[in-house]
Amino acid sequence: MTENTNNHDVIERVLIREPNWVGDNIFTLPAVRELRRRYPRAHLAVMTRLSIAPLWNLIGEVDEVIPFDFGEGWRGWRAKRDLVRTLRKKRFDLAVVFPRSFASAWLVFRARIPRRWGYRADLRSLLLTRRPACPDGYRRIHRADYYYRLLKGVSASASAPPVRIEITPRLRERALSIVRGEDAGIDEGRLVGFHPWASYGPAKCWPADRFASLGKMLVEKMKMRVMIFGGPSDRGPADRLARAIGAGVINLAGKSELDELGGLISLCRGFVANDSGPLHLAAAIGIPVIGLFGSSNPAATAPRGENVRTIFKNIPCSPCLKAVCPSDFQCMISITPEDVYSQLEQMM
Question: Which residue ranges form the domains of the chain, and what is each CATH number?
Answer without folding.
Answer: 5-148 (3.40.50.2000), 169-347 (3.40.50.2000)
